[in-house]
Amino acid sequence: MQLFGLVNTLLSTDPKTCKKDLSIRRYAVIPLSHQAGLIGMVPNCDVLNGLIREHRTQSNIIYNTETKTMEQMFENYETCPLLNKVEIFRYAQNNTLGEDLQRVLWLKSPNSEIWLERRTNYTRSLAVMSMVGYILGLGDRHPSNILLDRFSGKIIHIDFGDCFESAMRREKYPEKIPFRLTRMLQKAMEVSGIEGNFRNTCENTMRVMRANKDSLLAILEAFVYDPLLSFRLLNLKALINQKNKGDAGDVLAAPEVSVESRNAPGVNPGEMLA
User: What distance in Å separates the CA atoms of residue 151 and residue 64, rounded to the nearest whole number?
Assistant: First the structure.
């Protein structure tokens, strides 16, 4: 939250980003000890996963239609070679629409003026958080970790456990992408896609952060020495070193990096289309 506060301050002092009201929605986090704390509720927000599920239920669409489509082509998806997985993935992508979030933004807006405002806020907030998440090395961005404000349309991210690219180096389902930008998120931007407001906001946000890199690095360096985070990074480093040595016994005995991230909904191939 300290990093997001600094980014908000930097964005508010830049003329271009201040004019567009670029910022990151934050919520209260109160640490009580190294293993416990309090996290404030984010009011008037819904997770993308819930919005998609609700829309598909009302539209009589199977919730996991992408997964079902892939299973129709080949049942044992996990056992396929990589090239076959790509072919099955593209087959599901070509045979499903992925317009759920786009329809949700339209149907939940009272009129076209509010819809246009929410769509603009959605695109800009998604762009800002994508750039900040890239700098932070934030992973585990599945639809249950991304919220949508019911009134403003802004995107809010939660669960920052996998940062500093720890999700990219986990043993199972490593995340190789810099930030989440699936077709469903793109289609919700409507006609301009990523080449309009999204690209412009990304460029301005990255420009501001580059101009103030010393301030950002000072905060990020403090995060590296955080007891909880450093413990996870050390476990990850030990796991990688043991794996490189080829000692299977030690690798299996090594502590897990993140049980939650390895079992997260985002590792479902069908949800990668969302």
Answer: 27
Query: Each residue of 186-237: pLDDT tens digit?
Result: 999 988 889 989 999 999 999 999 999 999 998 888 777 766 555 555 555 5
Q: What CA–CA distance (Å, rounded) separates 3 from 223? A: 9
The domains found in the chain, sorted by start residue, are 2-273 (1.10.1070.11)
- Amino acid letter at 126? L
Beta strands in the chain (DSSP E): 29-31, 37-39, 45-47, 146-149, 155-157
* Cα 182 from chain centroid (whole Å): 10
User: What letters, b where the CB count within 10 A reaches 16 and e where it falls short, cover 37-53?
Assistant: eeeeebeebbbbbebbb
Q: Please, where are the H alpha helices in 14-146?
A: 15-19, 48-58, 65-73, 82-94, 100-107, 112-136
C-alpha distances (whole Å) from 263 to each of 141, 257, 258 are: 13, 12, 9
Q: What angle do CA 141, 144, 147 make, to 5 degrees?
A: 90
The packing angle between helices 65-73 and 82-94, to 10°, is 130
